[in-house]
Amino acid sequence: MEDKRFTQTKKVGILGILGNIFLLIIKGFIGFYTKSQAMIADSINSAGDIFASFMTFIGNKISSVPQDEDHNFGHGKAEYIFSMFIGISMFVVSFKLLYDSICALIFGSELTFSWLLVVTCFITIGVKLFLFIYTKSAAKKFDNILLKANMNDHRNDCIVTTFTLISVLLTLKNIYWFDSLTGIGISIWIGFTGIKFFIESYNVLMDISVDDNTKDLILDIVNSYQDIKQVHSITSAPVGYKYIVVIVICVDGNMSTFDSHALADSVELSVSKLDKVYRTIVHVEPI
Question: N or C: at which end does the chain have fewer Cβ atoms within 10 angstroms?
Answer without folding.
Answer: N
